[in-house]
UniProtKB/TrEMBL annotation:
CDD domains: DnaJ, DnaJ_zf
Single GO BP term: protein folding
Name of protein: Chaperone protein DnaJ
Origin organism lineage: Eukaryota, Metamonada, Diplomonadida, Hexamitidae, Hexamitinae
Keywords noted in UniProt: Metal-binding, Repeat, Zinc, Zinc-finger
Single GO molecular function: zinc ion binding
Domain CR-type: 127-212
Length: 349
């Protein structure tokens, strides 16, 4: 971080370093306009750095991400972005002859892109901290989204005057009109027209190109299927209006309901982990101590005294999936499967 402090620095030293660097890069000390803009940006970075270092949770996220992936700042932004965007705002009431109850919402950014990520049983138990590749459709780097090989070959559509739609006004009652809008067939709703044989060679005239990007996924232990997290501005650009900012990326986590591990089928019920474990007839009659390794690698000791019935459930409290998004920590539930061998049958005859 730009404050130039040690990892173990205390709060007082952090604030002192912030004051020192703030004075060093104060905009009033700049020699010219370019340096002033640089110092203003530096001030913003210093404030962000202090905000992270003085917040124990953010600091832990930054340190871990920086050590493992070198993406500490990206990890903090991900940590802070647990919020849902507003669904509707800025309705357009300026158009005439339109029923005011039929409000048209202007898009402020492209639509949200959805993606599913499948985790293993173990990953759902332990959580994940990893980079995830994302296939995106972004504004063409060559034509900047126009779709034309050169700017002079990109014109306003003469059929819709750049609106991207046709307006049909009909009189439904005397003195009352209603407007219907249709997408312009000539420009496909873009409001622009590209000269024939002058489309961009990189995007073939679409204005968009494929790009592989990365997000840093930080998912806590105990996650369940259907959990969603939004990564701002990491979606695709709009297929028609390439000037809009890119949309968000909404990732939905999918978790398996069961997994075979070390010859044992472990299944999930809410935050509980359930497994059918074989026990011998002797163990069923006299009790047992069993150490069972769960899919995340840690061992659970199951102890039972006296007689154990077949299909009897034995619970170990708080040995299941961790608490997550309001769900309480689960238990490990062992279902006893009494195995009677031929030797057992012979000894009882």
């Amino acid at each position: 971080m730009c404050l130039e402090v040690d990892k173990a620095t205390d709060t007082a030293a952090i604030k002192k370093a912030h004051r020192k660097q703030s004075l060093r890069f104060h905009p009033d000390r700049a020699l010219d306009q370019d340096e002033r803009e640089e110092f203003v940006e530096k001030q913003s970075q210093l404030n962000d750095a202090m905000n992270v270092l003085l917040n124990p949770e953010k600091r832990e996220v930054y340190d871990k991400a920086q050590f493992l992936t070198g993406m500490g700042e990206e990890a903090v932004r991900t940590f802070e972005s647990h919020k849902q965007p507003e669904a509707y705002k800025n309705f357009d009431l300026s158009q005439k002859n339109i029923d005011p109850t039929k409000m048209v919402r202007h898009k402020e950014k492209a639509d949200t892109k959805e993606m599913e990520v499948n985790l293993t049983f173990k990953q759902c138990m332990t959580g994940i901290f990893q980079k995830q590749e994302v296939d995106r459709r972004v504004r063409c780097s060559h034509c900047k989204g126009t779709g034309a090989d050169k700017h002079e070959h990109h014109h306003t559509c003469k059929y819709c005057n750049g609106r991207g739609k046709w307006a049909d006004i009909a009189e439904i009652l005397p003195g009352i009109t209603k407007e219907k809008n249709y997408v312009c067939d000539y420009c496909s709703g873009t409001g622009k027209h590209i000269d024939h044989d002058h489309t961009c060679d990189v995007c073939n005239g679409t204005g968009l190109e494929a790009k592989k990007d990365e997000i840093l996924m930080i998912i806590k232990a105990g996650v369940f299927s259907g959990y969603k997290h939004t990564y701002e501005d990491m979606g695709d650009f709009d297929e028609i209006d390439h000037k809009l900012p890119s949309g968000d990326l909404q990732v939905t986590i999918q978790c398996p309901q069961e997994e075979l591990f070390n010859g044992i089928v472990f299944s999930r019920q809410d935050q509980n982990i359930i497994a059918r474990i074989n026990i011998t007839l002797v163990e069923a009659l006299h009790g047992f101590n069993k150490s069972i390794t769960l899919p995340d690698g840690h061992d659970v000791l199951v102890t039972k005294q006296g007689i154990t019935q077949n299909n009897e459930e034995i619970q170990i409290a708080e040995a299941g999936f961790s608490t997550f998004e309001g769900r309480q920590i689960g238990n490990f539930i062992m279902i006893a499967n009494v195995v009677i061998t031929d030797e057992d049958r012979t000894s009882f005859m």
